[in-house]
Amino acid sequence: MTDGITSKDTLTELGAEDETQEDYDPYKHRTISKPTSTFGTFVHVMKGAMGVGILSMPYAIRNGGLIFGVIGTFLLGMLYSHCVHLLVETAYKICKRERVPMLSFAQTVDRACALGSPKIRPMGKILKNVVDYFLMIPISSMIYMVFVGNTIHDVINARTDLDWDVRVYILLVAVPAIGITQVREIKYLVPFSAIATTLIFANVIISLYYIFKEPLSFDDRDLFPTFDSLTTFLGAAYFAFDATSLIFPVSNQMKHPEHYLGCPGIVNVNNICLAILYCFIGVVGYLRYGDNIQGSITLNFPQAEDLAMVIQILSAVAILFSIGIFFYVPIETVWRRVHDRIPPKWHVTVQTLIRLLYLVGIVGIACGVPDIGTFVGFIGAVFNPILALWLPIIVDTIYRWPGDFGWMKWRLVKNGLMAVFGMFLLITGTISSVEDIIDLYK
């Protein structure tokens, strides 16, 4: 688990830092009992961003147009990479300045504010709690349990005489999830992420089989988006890269954390690979089905065929194996806040109970409200732009204030433009989520 940081009542100015701090490298002072390899971290980062949502990229490209969609996908991948760099680089500077080995996401926000102007400092504790409480909400895990339960329900009930309710399948899925969610070290979750990624790639290959069964056509394919379709494309494409909640949990557990950023670096390589893959699947899928493309391209495939059923099964298993890495984030956040209050001899027992109670809560909510994904999507639409865009901008701006913005304060201008884009995603995403909730009850 991540190490904490002791609060300080007084803070020195940047120019008055002790010279010995230049010799302090936070990466060399980390003590990780079971560190994750560079490749293992890459697998986690890849899986954190790439889910079955990759099969929705043809619909995203349809909304973005062939030319704008491809260029926009690469630019959005670069933007997300830049936000990760802002966050992790600032955390490294703070660690170096305050001589601590590592910080969590919430601690980075808190300390950046504490090192800022006196007017900003009170915001630190507020933003720290906002980040922590949001990360404690197992959004992905709730959506995944419902998705897997619904998928198995559709496959089995459609091909057998069974007429079981979806809640039965959610309860059945909870059985293997008990074992997966008890894995406590990032290192030991690598095989699960690797299997999930492999299954998703298998889905992509099967999808390409269906796509290339017929000739692709450029007829009546849009090259550029309308304003209405632009908002759908930007939201879908940007959050296809987003794995902000995993940034610190995976980077803080690395054997070689210096490989996370840099050139090429895990973040950059991962997002380049994702952008290429997203664009390829998106373009060929749109060329094949045109305006008839569905929200997930699998819905365009003949549903009666066994191969289409295989895609559904692979998707369900891939998502099931993905629960572990996303389950790690809320548990790590809770444990960081409470473990000091628990006697060491009870650590294993208490953490086991926390994980089990979390899973029971997730399954209970999923069974009680099978359409919970729509409501959770609203929470994500509100908080994801804040975590993925605004907080990296806030952290970078506060830490650099007032005079470290470069020539003509270009970094400040850049951060301002990014904040405007974040506001756009927040507004459009919230409106779209509210419309989905209204449609649910029509």
Point out poorly predicted stretches: 1-20
Rg is 22 Å
The class by helix and strand makeup works out as mainly alpha
Q: What do we call the CATH homologous superfamily?
A: Amino acid/polyamine transporter I
Shape: globular
Number of helices: 15
Q: What is the residue-mean pLDDT, rounded to a whole number? A: 85
Any descriptors?
Amino acid transporter transmembrane domain-containing protein; mainly alpha; Amino acid/polyamine transporter I; 68% helix; transmembrane; membrane; transmembrane helix; disordered N terminus; 442 residues; L-amino acid transmembrane transporter activity
Written overview of the protein:
The protein has 442 residues and is mainly alpha-helical. It has helices spanning 38-49, 57-64, 66-98, 105-114, 121-136, 139-159, 166-181, 186-211, 227-239, 247-251, 266-289, 306-338, 347-368, 372-400, 410-440. The protein is globular, with a radius of gyration of 22 Å. Its main location: membrane. GO terms for molecular function: L-amino acid transmembrane transporter activity.
